[in-house]
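Render this sequence as a predicted structure.
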Amino acid sequence: MIGLYEGTAVIVQARLSSKRLVRKALLDLGDKPILYRVLDSVRELPAEHFILACDTNSKKEFQPIAESLGYLCVDGSEEDVLKRFCDAVEFVNSKFSKTPLKAIIRVTADNPFLFVQAAEASIRRYFELGEPDYFTYTGLPHGSGIEIIKADSLLKAASETDDEYAHEHVSPAIYGHPDKYRCVRETAPPAWYYPELRTTVDTAEDYEKAKEIYKYLIIGKKNSPFTAADIVEALSYADRLVVFCPSVTPGRGSGHLHRVCDLARSLLGKLRCLIYIPESDYPNFSKALLNSIPSDIIVNEFPKKAALIVLDRFKTSEDEMAFFKNKGPVLVIDEGGTGRRLADFILDILPSLDNVSSSDDGAMSEWVPNLFSPELISLPVNRRKQIPGHRLLKNRKIHLAPKKTKVLVVCGGENSYRMTLPIAQILASLKFDVSAIDINLGFEDIKRFDGKVKAFSRIDNLKERLHEWDLVVTHYGFIAFEALAAGCYVLLVSPTDYHYKLGLAAGFTSLPAGIPSVIDFANVFSHGIKIPNIITPYSESKDLPSLIKNLSFGSRHLCPVCGEDSTSEIIVRTPDRTMGRCYRCGMYHISFIVSPPNKYTKTYFFDEYKAQYGKTYLEDFESIRKQGMRRMEIIDKLYLDIFYRKREYSIFDGEKKLIDIGCAYGPFVLAAKYSGWYAVGTDISEAAVKYVTDELKLPAFVSAFPALPESYDYIYQKQMTGNGFESVVTPIKDGGFAAVTMWFVIEHFQDLDSVLKKVNDLLMPGGIFAFSTPNLSGVTGTFSPYKFFAESPADHYSIWDAKTVRDQLGMYGFKVLKIVSTGHHPERFRWCKNLKKNGLLWKIVLSISKMFKLGDSMEVYAMKQGRLEDLR
C-alpha cells in the first residue's frame, strides 16, 4: 500500500487567527483540541508523509500537538496559504530527496468530522485516473471532504497567479484554470452524498454543534476515525434541536410544565432538547420539578434557530407566535390563544372547544388541529381490575353512596385558586371518605380538618396511585383523564367559566365556576355522575415522545412562487402536513410536512408507480406514449396557429425544438419525435435517462431543472452507412426552443419562481409551455377538498387550480391558450361510488364531469408572450 502511494503527503493547514472564531483550532472537543481531532482522523490514510502547515505565529502552540501524532510541523505565511503549501512541498522535497512529492492530500483544520473512508477512496481514484492535476468528490457534507492536488502543478500554478483568492484558498489556483490543468470533480457515491449537510467549524454556532456531534458519537461508543454513517447519524441529532416552551404563568397550572419535563426526559439522548424559561418567569412552584432534569438543558435565552419549537403554553398571542416562527417550525400542544391559527402544526391532546375531527371533509379551518388524540396523555399503568358500571350503565351515569366511596380532591399541582381544602371539607361533611392534596397545605389547615380529611402536600407518582380512590374531584386537566383511565369516576369543579365549558364539552359532570356549596354537591350526586367515553380504563397510551421526534424531521415550506416575501393563510391541516394559500399569488402549497420527500430512483418508477397504478412505468409506457401523441396534436395545432397561420413565413431555419422536463423513461420524447419534432429529454433519474439514450436512442441528459448544462452529448447511429455511431454536442441556448413540456412534474418543484423564469428563458417568443398537474377545481377538490389535500403526495409542493393558473402564469409572461380537463372519475362523485364501470349511469356521470371540466387533473397550454420580430 505504501509503495503504491509513495510520494504522497497529507498536508493539514491551520492557524490561530481565525476571523470568525478566534483560536478555534485549540478549542476543546471531547478533552482534546479540534486540531488534534483533525490530525488524528487522517493519520491512517495511506500516505507517506504527514505535515501540519501552519503560520509562524501559531507554530509554538501547534507543534507539540503535531509531533505527538507523528506530524512534521512546517510554518509559513499567515495570509498566503498557497505559499505555505508550496513551502511545505519544498521542505519535504529537500528533506526526502529520494522520493519527491507527487500528490498532496489537502485537509483543513476546521473539519474534525472528515469522511475518512471517502478520503481513502479519493486517493485510490486519483491514481486510477492517472494522477490528474486536481481531484475531489463533490456532494460530501461541507467540511467532510478532501482535495488531492498534483505537487508539481501546485508549484507551477502558484508561480503563475497573483490572485488573492487563490493564494488564500489554495485549490482555485488549479481548478480556476481548466484550460491549463486537468481537473476532475466526481459525484460522490450515494453512501457519502449529503450535499445539504455541514460539518465544518467556522462559527461559534458550528462549534456548539460540533460538541453535540462528538458527544453523541462517544455516548454511542463509536470509534475514531468515525464512519460516514456514524457522522451523518450524529449530525442529524445535532442539527435537530427541539426547544420546549412550557407555560409557567401563575394560574395556568403545572400540568404544562410537567408534560414538557416528562417529554424532555424521554427524548434526551435521542434528540437535542432545550427547555426555554425566561429568567423573569422562572416558576417558584415547580423548582423541585425542574431540579429533576439536567440543568444544562434549561435556558433563559432563546436559540437562534431550532428544528422544532414545541409550545405548551396554554395561550400564545399572534405576536408571540410570530417571534417563535422566526426561529423555526412551531408545534403547539393544546393551544388556546389567538396565535394557534398561525402554528405550523397543531396537536390537541385534551379536548377543547375548538376540537373538530380532522377526518371530516368539512375540516377546512386554520383553527382545526392537525391531530387530536387524547390517548397521547401519559395514562397510568395501574388500573382497577374491575370497573363496575363502565360497560353496563344504560345512561353512563353512576350514583355513589358516600360511606362506601373513597374520594380524592386535587385541584392541580399549583392549586392557585385555593379550591382543594374547602371542597374537601364539604365532601367530608357529606360523609365521604376524603383525601386531599394541596401544595399550600399548612399546619392550621390540618388542625381544621380534625381528622375528617386525610391531607397531603404531595403524593409521589400520583398518576399510578389514582386507582386507590373511587372518585376523583379535580378541575379540567390531565388528572381528570388519568383518573378515567385508572378506572375512577370523575367530578369536575371549575376555577373559571372556561374550565366549566371545557368539562361539559368533554362529557364530564362539571360544576360551574367557583367553590360549590353543599347543596350543589348533593344535587350532583342525586342526579348521578357521567362517565365520559373519550378515555376509558381500556384505553391504551400512544407514544407522545415518538410523535415529537417524528415531527422534528418535518420541514416548513414557503410559497414556491413568491418565496420569502410571501405570507400564507392556512387552508387545511392533516396528520402529516399543513397546507397554505399564498395571499399574494393565490398558489396553494405545502406549508409544513412531516414526511421526507421521495427520491426519484428506479424504485420510484417501478415499485411505487406500480403500487399506485397497478403496473410499472415501463409496463405503462405505451399508454403514456399514446397520451403523448394526443398532447402533441394540441401542441402542433397551437404551433401552427402561432407561427404559421398568422405569418407568411416560417421563423425556423431548422427543426422544431422541444425539451421535455422530467422525461422519465421517455414516452413523450418518443411521441414528439413521431410528431416531427426535434425533442430532447432531461430527468433527475440517471437510470431513466440511460434508458432513453440507450434503448430509445433519443437525446437526453441528467439534470436537476432549472439547473442545466451548457450543452449535452447525443450519440446516434450513422444514417448513410448504418455502421458505427457519431456523437454531436448540442448547446442549450436561451430562446432556442419552440416548446417546453412538463407532464406531472411542475408540482414537484419547491422553487417555482426560478423554474418558471427558466422556462421563459428557454422559449422563443410565441413558444409553447405545456404541462399537466393535479387540479383543485376537479371533482375531489370541489366536493371533498380535505380529501384532495390529504391524499396529495408528500412531494407535491404546489397545488394548481384552473381558476387561478392564468394569473399565476401571467406573472411570468405566459398567456394561457388552452386548459384540458383530464383524470375524470365518475366514482369520485358523491353517491356514485358503487356505479358499474362503463354502465349507463357511469357514462352519464362521466359526460357531466367532462362537460363541467371536473377532472382531477388538467393540462395547461400557454404561450410565451412577445413579438416574433424579436427573433430576427
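Summary. DSSP finds 27 helices and 36 strands in the chain. The radius of gyration is 35 Å.
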